[in-house]
Amino acid sequence: MSALAISDGLAPIRSRFLDLLDARQTAIHADLEFVFAHPERAGPALERIMADLHKIAGTSGTLGFADLGDRARRAEYAIADLLDAPSGPATPVYMLIIDVLEAALDILDPAT
């Protein structure tokens, strides 16, 4: 099978991924705003963000978004470390999450 045929076959899957990426980006943004507003209750929101990042990281590379996948995986692991040691510095973790949101926005709306 040619690379073009594979690319054409992935087009509907890639389109669905972009729709899901948009929804996940919105959810991550909302959860991150909650974390900033309520740091004492951040755990569940961070777990949801981590789950969304895991999904993004797992699919991105296959569909041509390797950089997004790498960023999502780094942020996912950083959240896991933060949840394991909640007294650690949170700001670098939040910056990694914001980096993923910005990378997703670059993919979803390249004109921004």
DSSP summary, beta strand count: 0
* SS strand fraction: under 5%
Termini separation comes to 36 Å
Tertiary shape: elongated
Order of helices and strands: HHHH
Helix content: over 70%
Give the overall pLDDT as a whole number: 90
CATH hierarchy class name: Mainly Alpha
CATH architecture: Up-down Bundle
Overall tally of structural domains: 1
Largest sheet: none
Radius of gyration: 15 Å
Oligomer: single chain
CATH topology label: Four Helix Bundle (Hemerythrin (Met), subunit A)
Pfam families: Hpt
GO molecular function, one term: protein kinase activity
InterPro entries: HPT_dom_sf, Sig_transdc_His_kin_Hpt_dom
Protein name: Phosphorelay protein
Describe what this molecule looks like in 3D.
29% of the residues are buried. Helix content is 80%, strand content 0%. It has four helices and no strands. Helix 1 crosses helix 4, helix 2 runs antiparallel to helix 3 and helix 3 packs antiparallel against helix 4. With 112 residues, it is mainly alpha-helical. The longest helix has 35 residues.
SSE map:
Layout: H1 3-37, H2 43-60, H3 66-84, H4 91-108
Helix pairs in contact: 1-2, 1-4, 2-3, 3-4
